[in-house]
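2 proteins. here.
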Amino acid sequence: MKSIKFIAACALLAGATASFGHENMHNNHPAVAPQQQEWGIAGEAKGAKRTITLRMTDDMRFTPSHFTVKQGETVRLRVENKGQVMHEVVLGTQGTLDQ
């Protein structure tokens, strides 16, 4: 059951670019401290030096199919659905997804 909740949370975060994209807007939500995970830790958006755009189509492929990030590098992941079917991006290791 934990893995379903984790996958759902990741899907919501990946698809929430419109709500997180309004950096100049004020909100009353308290900041959540980033937590270290096996695959990394959330970085400050202003620290991202490059954006990686993941494009998804209905042939169930991502473009690019892989990318490389240096240890300690902060990148912005931008997700584009170019198909008609809903897609999701899940971040994590197999161990954390199996929980």
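next one coming up
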Amino acid sequence: MKERFVLRNVKRVNEEQIDIVVENGKIAEVTKAGSGHGRLIFDYSGMYVSSGWVDLHVHAFPEFSPYGDEIDEIGIKHGVTTIVDAGSCGADRIADLVKSREQAKTNLFAFLNVSRIGLKRVDELSNIEWINKEKVKQAVNEYQDFIVGLKVRMSKSVVLDSGIEPLRIARGLSEETSLPLMVHIGSAPPSIEEVIPLLEKGDVITHYLNGKENNLFDNEGKPLQVLSDAIERGIHLDVGHGNASFSFKVAESAKQYQIGLNTISTDIYRKNRLDGPVYNMANVLSKFLYLGYSLKEVIEAVTTNAANWLKKPELGRIQVGDVANLTLFSVQNEPVTLIDSEGDKRVGNRRIEAKGVVVNGTFIEC
């Protein structure tokens, strides 16, 4: 049985001070600051609390290099209670990714790579024969509580001479499995004008703020018509920072033209965690404070918005009776140097720092 404990004197992003009482792994009370009772008291005066951060795009299968890392290294150790592996594994290895959850504390879900080999190779869609429709459907059926969508990486280095065909096949698989697509956009061919029209409501464009030539904004920073149309259709925009997919200049254009902030994700793996420019979720979130988004908007992009896309609203709220998944963090008013994927450096004046998590009812300091 998990002990009853209190997170004392924490505050929501609206500055409301509260105590949160956790008992038997669930939120037992959300009450006035200083009034919660429990055998263990964790006083976090001045610290913020939110529902647990959700990272919609990570790579958590360490066996595949260069895109891989340990689950908890990119999860709870950096304030993230739920991660979604973005297509590291196809049908050949998805069972191994599922099994890896047993040794981790961080909640883990996954997008299934439509290529059965996944990221065993970085040109996983260059051979159409690697897309085995029956294996995709079998994996989705077997791990339906784990697989949240299908991943297809539509950039030149991945598809080579296959062109747009992998996405057409993935679109059909999406219809057959009733799962949305997460589509990685990058260098052409195929062109962005070929890719985006094939996406439908509920699908995800990841790397939407990348600075490559084949991006979603014109040379003057104005959103392309295909982006405006996608937003109108209800397509979800995901940051997916990564080594090469986040540009301050493009992000400033998106802010200028009031492109909605859906989800902020890291596309984190060992190299960009250790050497940057990602480092951790808090660092990426700090970049959006620098861009002028409010703390509320930034935190919603890794809590409410992500949880709602996953159709797991309980992950995005602090509500009595729910399993306790929470993130404790501070906002330091001090200069911080921030670097995008193109080496562009900016100096912000506020820095978010993760301090601890409650994951499935267990309190862990970061």
